[in-house]
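Page 37, top half.
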Amino acid sequence: MNKYRFLAAAAVALFAFSLYRATLLPGFDFGDTGSFQATVGSELLTPRDAYPLYFAIGAAVVRLTHLEPAFALNLASAIEAAVAAAAIVFVAAELSGSLVAAVAAALLFVVSYTFWSQAIIAEVYALHALFVATTMWLLLRWSRQPSLRSLTAFFGVYALGFGNHLSMILLLPGYTVFLLLAAPGGWRSMLTPKVVLVAALCALGGAAQYAWNLRTLWFQPHPPDSMADALRTFWFDVTKSDWRDTMVLNVPASMLADRVHMYWFDLRQQFGPIVPAVAVAGLAALFVRDRTRAVLMLLLYLVNALFAFSYNVGDTHVFFLPSHLMVVLLAAAALGLAHPRAARGAALPRALHVVAGLFIVYAAVRAYNDFPALDRSADRRPTSVVERLAGGLDDQHALLLTDLNWQIANGLSYYARVPHPELATARMPDVLLYAPALIHDNAAISRRVFLTERARSELSASYGPLVPTAPDPSTAVPPLAAEIERLPAGTAYVFCVLRPSRDLPLDRSDVAGAARQLGGSAVRLPDEDYVAMVGSIGGPTTIISGNRPFRQRVDIHGVPVEIRMESWLATDTIRRMGFGHVIAHHHHSLIVERGISFVAFDDRGSPIRTSYRSNIFAPQPRYVCYR
């Protein structure tokens, strides 16, 4: 049986890696991903950077592959996610006793929307899933064949997982209760000096990974005065204490009902409505067959789900991933009734084997349907945005002063560090106090000073006409209506307007002008969170809207188009995969963002023109100081 488990796990891992490699982001991204890609390979890792194990593995992949760091780190996520899929097969087989059920559970998680989206970019969640699954498998194996050696393996891997993500702590209640309940000599056997010593040594080993972060404090411009000072700074930064206190268990009471709807939307987005129902049956089956394992699964699910539910952060969906893993594992437990030892008759096991096989088919269908939406293999939007801001500039001839949305700033950091180290940049808030002198000194050595839009606004507000600026004509941003005007009549399009982020407000006149250009003066867009205007330029127009996410199919001159709104705008401020998608002829035509997203496409669904406004992918004008 073990041989077959290894073969099945290897097959699932190969499928997962092939899927993720085919849809892998080819370059750098914005947000945390851009920060990870800019940091990997650095010898100095600050406590704020955290994730020492993640960066160590990423650096190893960069060295071994000789690939550009951004792509190498994306590839590392795909590898980690594929290995996690293999580990899930082993966990699900332990819980269910059925290899078919285990494969079905692993495949359902492999193709789940959020996990897939995190497996194709530089992020920590694929590696976290690997540690969650591996520690669960080691714990279940120990309960089946107890020994100090297997217990030490569990303690060691669990402690190692803290080097990737501190949310490993959320597994502690479930693991602790299980160890005490499943201990062969009773709960007191877990408190013997030998076991306590092994656990303590493993914990120290896991904590030692952060020596890398602690060491870096002494290489900073203002090193700590003492070890106590260093430890205080380290703990504050590595646990993100400055914002954690305002986010953990801080969802306003008025939003709790909306949060429930959001969770149900998110769960259905991953698995549809059937798998969660089967998971409930699986939990009931576990309570009948093995109450100790049922308590473990229930605690792991509840602690992780409730943490994510109460975590007031802009990307809550990624923190639901461990609880989603518990859902598929419980579904496997339900399907595991097919194991001959779980039923008296022969007909029932065969029927449930068929059901498990149907779940595998269901996973394949979901993979086919979601492949276009999750395919980022051609997504070079971050590169385009940053090249527009910084393209053609070098430290011999120019200095770029910036004040950018933090997500774009992280992408620029990678751009300036890896592919274009010749770019000289500085943040306007850091130099504003002496900006006129800085600009004067650069002009004296024939180096022009360029500014991003917000940096120019800050400079003008502080110094007015003392430091004159002018738009850089090479980066002028025309109204969206002017871009649409250049497209021939009859061109198929989708024009989406989603409620924008607070720091990137809509230009209502631009929205109205684009709508008139597309559908005529009679077009009025509704004031709802999600709006999609679909049709052909100068032809009939269909408007789809709502305050909740939706999927809608339309036909434009024989081209089948699916509009998918894949976010919950009341809570989502960050969606690495976008807030929605336009799929035309099973082709990924547009990643929909907050604000304005527009695509015109041909009869095969291939984009002819894509435009963004009022979001992080919108083109930004650049300004130049002419003093």
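Page 37, bottom half:
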Amino acid sequence: MSDYQDALQNPRLSFCDSELMRGAPVTDRLGLPKPVTGGFASVYQVDCTGRKWAVRCFLRYHQDLEQRYASIGKYLQDASLPYTAGFQFLRRGVKVQGQWYPVLKMEWVDGEPLNAYVERNRKDSQAMRRLAEQFARMTKDLRRTGVAHGDLQHGNIMVVGGLLKLVDYDGMFVPPLRGMPSHELGHPNYQHPRRSERDFGPYLDNFSEWVIQLSLLALSVQPGLWEAAGAGDEQLLFSQKDFIDPQSSKVLRALAEVQDETLRQISATFRSVLAYTDISQIPALDGSRMPARVASGSYGSGSYVVVGAKPPEAAKQKGASLPAWVWDHMEAVQVQIGPPFIVERVSVASWVALAVGLARFSRLHYITPAVAAWASVAGLVAAVVALVARYRARAEFVRKSALVLQVRGAKREVRRIEGAMRQIERERGRLVQRGDRTAGGISGKVQDLQGQEKEEYDQVDIWLQRFLAEIAQRREDLNKAEAEELVRAAKSTPVRFLAKRAQAIMRYYRGKRDPLATREERARLEAAKKKDGIRLKYAKKEEPLDKKLRETREGFQKEREFLDERFDQESQKLSLQKWSLDNLAREQNLYARITFVAFVRRILFLKT
């Protein structure tokens, strides 16, 4: 980082970009360029005649960085989202110790970080609600375009004139980058503990959205949570410890005890989000794929809810301050076995009448007790068979059975599609390795040629430096001899002839020096000519290699695009199938009380 600071002190020499060369970096009290340092880059603000730029100097460099930013830039430009800033990747960005390093030139966003804005306005419930609504709208727009920021946290969300802006796109996902790994894992206080570099897709922000939105909603209801949670520079309300050990979380415990029932239910749902082991399955903030279970396993006993039912109007009025999407978390009434039960009750009554009649006949000795008992059992079996037949013929049971079969079929299809996607990923991995080896071999040859070219350049420079050093030495000897002769002339020549004698001496030595300048100029021209010859020679050698490398990359890119297209198709199938499976599972949960025991209890007027 100190090397970057040293380089930025002289923008004219350190930048290649013409606009940045004319700029001036913002400095600290010591007069040094003032950086904002993160885990991936150091950011410097450069003022270019009134227009401000953020110059991101990378602390970690990845070979595909330029490709990623090219894809991100093009996709964001086409998406025209109001939450992003323009940027340009500069391969020759900043010169440090004679070596060029890439930088990202991004529009400087003059705003207030989210945590600072929240801290200043946390006691204004209206402001917190507006912020929560804006955040929900922003995440919905990002999701609609298939974009995931990858590191949603307070430092990367700026509040500009009451509107939200996103900065730092190092970990951003856009659809053209599908299948690539993530180079960063985001701020730990906003990320699921199980996130890894393999997690890189449009679902990447889902967990962070929950953390931020729940924090904003909680503060709009109970501002005192800010002090209780120790929020501030590194978090809003939650920290990584809350995600790893929810049982010991003071914040989650406080949210479980708030008076607002809806907020308690949302926080309970967030506990279930923490239980996910596959973060790609974490539901989106807008409730489009909410978990059916509110709490489970080590996170408490809890109850079960089915998403989609709307609350009564009275409840809406009571909590009208919360965003509309929270009402998708309310509990739905499960399906019950409904009337009529006339035939079933007649069957039961007939069997009871038969059993009573047989018992009376047995006591009157019209039939033996054994016959009465066996006849009663036969009647009971017939009644049970009739009830089972009636139960299996009911629409509720038929639908439940169909749902069971549909869920099994959907699960099998999900496993099949996931297997196909894994196969495509393996093919893509082999393709990338083969492409890297092939391109690496060609690039190695190009680098060897470039090294040879540099060696010949260096030899020409060495020859020129030696020749110029001899010329300089010769010029210095002549200057010294001229000075000595002028001194001798001053001592031995009469005063009236001294000026003429001095002019003659200087003319003589000027005549000696002028050819030296000519020789120096000729040497420089000869060195430039040699370098041009070297450049042309190696350009001819590198041209077929560059063409071959370009064709190789294009060929592998086409194959990769074909695999990506197949992967996208399977991914769309998987999303649709999982969506269908989720809906079937929710509906199946509604039929949990459709059992034969419940059916019999309803016939016998017993509560189920």
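Margin note: The chain has four domains: 2-107, 112-329, 347-390, 399-590.
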